[in-house]
Predict the structure.
Amino acid sequence: MRILFSILFLCTMGAAAYGQKPEPRRTVVAGKVENFEAIGNDLTVYFNDMLFEAAHTVDLGSTGGAFETASICCFAQNHTVKLGNGSFINVFLNPGDSIFVHVDGALAGKDLAGAVALSGDNTEINGQLLEWTLKGGLYGRAHELNNDAAPEEFRKELAQTLDDARRYIDTYAERAGMGEFMRDWAFRDHVWTLFNYNSGAGSAWEHREQMWDIFTREPFDIHDRKNFMVSVFQSDLTLYPRYFFMDSESELDDMEAEDSGVRVPAVRSMLRKITDSVPRGLARDFMIFGVMLHVVQYYPDTYTLMPELGDMFSDDIFIERLEHLVADAGKLPRSVNEGTAVVDGVSYLAGNVVERLPDGVKLMGYLHEKYAGKVIYLDVWATWCGPCLKEMAHAPALHEYFGARDDVAFVNLCMGSGAETWAPAIERHRIGGENYFVAGRPQFFQSEWNIVQFPTYMVIDKEGKVHNNVPRPSNTEGAIKTIENLL
């Protein structure tokens, strides 16, 4: 009966996921956390639809543990509820669905599966997803393959890794009674997590065509609409242009150049490469959207390219969203004194010694005070984030350029990672600068300072104003100009 239900669910999945047109609809995640004092007052619901990505943070202390959040969503996929103790609950929703999440905070620290009760839409699927995430999931099993290997060797290692994952999922499913839909979801989630870890393999220019062949065939079929059921797929699509269509790293620099006479033609060239290489459809839509999302947030004047996008997208909703983002990009920087979120579990690496900061620190204000009189370039990253680590390789050039100055500080803030992985990652990747670690993901802090993805780059100027969406380290020239303009 369970398998039959899952098959019927898959067959009747909303047209927004597998049809020809995204259908934006209001989607609701609500619930109640009993005994929330045991796990903390903060609760954040992350709606992972990239077009309308939103993070809603609730102070349970002011609501008696109740919460109700909503966002526009276009795709049937998983979203995330993050509890105050850092635990997360995945929920699968079609656009327009509603789900009620009941949590007993007194049990959540010991047995989260036993502490959670779900009701509303897709209850059986979400029950299986909860069990898989907490007891069977492949999280932590995704890893970097040998990206330096020749394509055929890489292909063999990848195939073996995926075969092992499939066997693991099937064994777990038989034991736990997990249905066909969830088996499919679990495998696709692992596939695209692997891509996230290993997408940089495509940046080996001499193997790029072979890697493109690997990463566009099954199970990495970018035109298979069922992949939209896993949230990581949308963001992974935005990585394809960088790793498969750029002729060199300097092309990214040109796309982020301060001179619009350089930047606009570079962006236009990238868009043409995408349209020449990828058939019209949702996969191409997200690649183009990803390129434009990146540049319009940094450089709103890139909006001049908007009239050229009409024939590139298969759906006007992408242009509509970009227009909203261009408007948002013009917002003024905020002062650290406006911040109200406090953060617990902050550590600082002083040489080889880890020092713990007092709980309840207002972190942006703390950094401004500690590095008083300095412009602070802030890199928010995670140890498991492949793009974060690739950007870290460009940071030494920034450090060297400003090395003789005493009014610039480079601060790396690691979040959403295991404490045991932090210091080893710093040593392994030779990450310079001032290194801080925050346990879990402090939802109020992230929401307040618009930290919605890893990596995120910000600058705190000498007056304590926080500038979001500044150029990343790989855009060395852009980052240097941003810092120099604030000195």
User: Anything to note?
Assistant: The chain has three domains: 2-136, 151-329, 334-486. The chain has 21 helices and 16 strands. Confidence is low (pLDDT under 50) at residues 1-20.
